[in-house]
Amino acid sequence: MATTSDIRNGLCIRYNNDIYKIIEFLHVKPGKGPAFVRTKMKSVTNGKVLDNTFSAGHKLEDVRVETHKFQFLYNDGEYYHFMNTEDYSQIQLRESALDSPGLMKEGEVVTVIINTEDNMPLSVEMPASVVLEVTATEPGVKGNTATNATKPATVETGAIVNVPLFINEGDKIRVETDKGTYKERVKE
């Protein structure tokens, strides 16, 4: 059993007959009244996000999990296929188990969280950022880089990311996976 003081990002808990992963949390101690923890949880079975508030000291049933490195192989529309980098076994997961499937390219190594009770994969954690090539965007205008203006760009995975005006087709950019936002241009 865990309490609200054990809450951290990535913690998996059993709540309302389902398993949830903590995405965000905030400990709040108001000047008047008892302390509480405000959380944002994502269901690992159906992908729904739930906002919930726990009072301080509330008991939580945590789920024991293991993490393994898997390499993304391909998706066939409905399922995403991964291979364990240690024993080469393969698993397939639905899109709802993935945090940002649009930013995942073939060959990407991700961390898969597996429930130790039944060895079922719960969710996939992407690296903090990924490097993707821009495949389509409007051409940049010289001298128009002083403002924080952005334009949409399609990357090699098909996802659309807002980028600064100086980014052109063929440029490689680093994208933050948790927000899906442009971070920097990558030079080879």
TrEMBL record:
Alphabetized GO MF terms: translation elongation factor activity
Localization per record: Cytoplasm
UniProt-listed GO biological process terms: peptide biosynthetic process
GO cellular component: cytosol
Similarity-based family: Belongs to the elongation factor P family.
PANTHER family: ELONGATION FACTOR P, ELONGATION FACTOR P (EF-P) FAMILY PROTEIN
Protein name according to UniProt: Elongation factor P
Species, as recorded: Siansivirga zeaxanthinifaciens CC-SAMT-1
Upper taxonomic lineage: Bacteria, Pseudomonadati, Bacteroidota, Flavobacteriia, Flavobacteriales
